[in-house]
Amino acid sequence: MTPQDIEQLFTCSDDSYLFARWERPIVPIVFGVDDATLSTVKGACEAIVTLAGHKMAETDTEMGANLMVFFFRQWEELLQVPDLDKLVPDLAPLVARLAEADANQYRAFRFEQSGAIRAAFVFLRMDDALSEQPAEDIALSQMAQSILSWSDRAFTTRSPLARTPEGTIVLHPEIGDVIRAAYDPVMPAAATDPSHALRLAARLGRGN
């Protein structure tokens, strides 16, 4: 990937550059699924965290869990989750906006004072399109999109996943390379200057 390609992955709709990664260990929790799907999501999280060279933990000292994944049928169901409005600002207008747009997924982040990711919230409305996808594919895609603060348009025209010649769905190698580079210890946990993309590009393929 060129530096320009990488820059676009973290350039938001308002043309601002925003990059952030996790500093604290990731503690996932999943709502609205059976035990099999729960294991699938946590397995995907572990795979992406291992790829990044980051860590998971059993609990977060402040929040208990800091990566919350919600599966549901209607956006309005989120308004019934106790205290979720305290974790996700302006939840009610957000739900109304997503319902009106007929969206089937949304990710929200909270950040540390340093700019690093503090917590992530993954919302998945299981409409017909999502319901047709294997749970493994959904889990891998969502965990890949939660390990960094990608642009809101990073994956509108491309998927973070790819299909092997044998037909297996895997994380796209280019996206995996960016994740590994982003978690290189010499790289900052957060950045707002597009020159950061040049540093990421320089680290691609180094086997971080």
Structure description:
The protein is 36% helix and 17% strand. With 208 residues, the chain is of the alpha/beta class. The protein folds into two domains: 1-21 and 149-208, no CATH class; 23-134 and 141-147, no CATH class. The strands form three sheets. A four-stranded mixed sheet has the order 2-3-5-4, covered by helices on one side. Strands 1-8 form a two-stranded antiparallel ribbon. The chain has a two-stranded antiparallel sheet with strand order 6-7. β4 and β5 (117-125) form a beta hairpin. The protein is globular, with a radius of gyration of 17 Å. The two termini are 16 Å apart. The mean pLDDT is 95.
List the helices and strands and how they pair.
Blueprint: H1 3-9, E1 19-20, E2 28-31, H2 35-52, E3 67-72, H3 84-87, H4 91-100, E4 105-111, E5 117-125, H5 128-131, H6 135-146, E6 161-163, E7 169-171, H7 173-182, E8 190-191, H8 195-203
Parallel strand pairs: 2-3, 3-5
Antiparallel strand pairs: 1-8, 4-5, 6-7
Helix pairs in contact: 1-8, 2-6
In a nutshell, what does this entry contain?
The protein has 208 residues and is of the alpha/beta class. It has helices at residues 3-9, 35-52, 84-87, 91-100, 128-131, 135-146, 173-182, 195-203, and strands at residues 19-20, 28-31, 67-72, 105-111, 117-125, 161-163, 169-171, 190-191. Strands 2-3-5-4 form a four-stranded mixed β-sheet, with helices on one face. Strands 1-8 form a two-stranded antiparallel ribbon. A two-stranded antiparallel sheet has the order 6-7.
